[in-house]
Amino acid sequence: MEDRLAVHELISLHGHLMDSGAFERMDELFSADVVYDLSAFGSGELHGYEAITEASLALGSGNPVGHHVTNICVSEDVDGTVRVRSKGIGIYADGRVGSVVYEDVVRKEPGGWRIAYRKVILRRVPLQP
Fold first, then answer.
1. Residue 122 near residue 100 (C-beta atoms within 8 A)
2. What residue ranges define each of the domains in the chain, with the CATH number in brackets?
3. Cβ-based neighbours of 61, under 8 Å, separated by 6 or more
4. Is the CB of residue 14 less than 8 Å from the CB of residue 29?
5. What is the DSSP code (8-state) at residue 24?
6. Burial class (CB in 10 A: 0-12, 13-18, 19+), 66
7. What is the C-alpha separation between 89 and 99, in angstroms, rounded?
8. More exposed terminus of the chain, fewer Cβ within 10 Å: N or C?
């Protein structure tokens, strides 16, 4: 239960750090070798939290003003891989709202749980299998 709670806290931390621009704290969220898959946005894969920071800064005011995460589901594969699937809602300054699914692989490191892989899947069609 302690690990499960820590993973929930980790996933929740994403929005707080990103929305406040606390890029100096990305090492609290991601492993150093993180792969952040933004292929659904046409951005391919970002490697390392420095690349995530650079991409976020480059997007500037195109970033959501709020990243909200909900429906966090944690599972463990037979081989011990811990997967997290959650829903994300992005609120933009102009009032637009977007919905995504985050598919994460997390791992326990000396400093605690970190996201090692994140795939962001756009949700634009209802009841999409």
1. yes
2. 2-123 (3.10.450.50)
3. 93
4. yes
5. G
6. middle
7. 5
8. C
Tens-binned pLDDT, residue by residue, of the chain (129 aa): 899 999 999 999 999 999 999 999 999 999 999 999 999 999 899 999 999 999 999 988 888 999 999 999 999 999 999 999 999 999 999 999 999 999 999 999 999 999 999 999 998 888 766
Contact 55, 37 (CB under 8 A): no
Structural tokens at position 75:
């599972």
Three-state helix/strand/coil letters over 37-94: ECHHHCCCEEECHHHHHHHHHHHHHHCCCEEEEEEEEEEECCCCCEEEEEEEEEECCC
Residue 29 and residue 12: Cα distance in Å, rounded? 10
Note the residue count of the chain.
Answer: 129
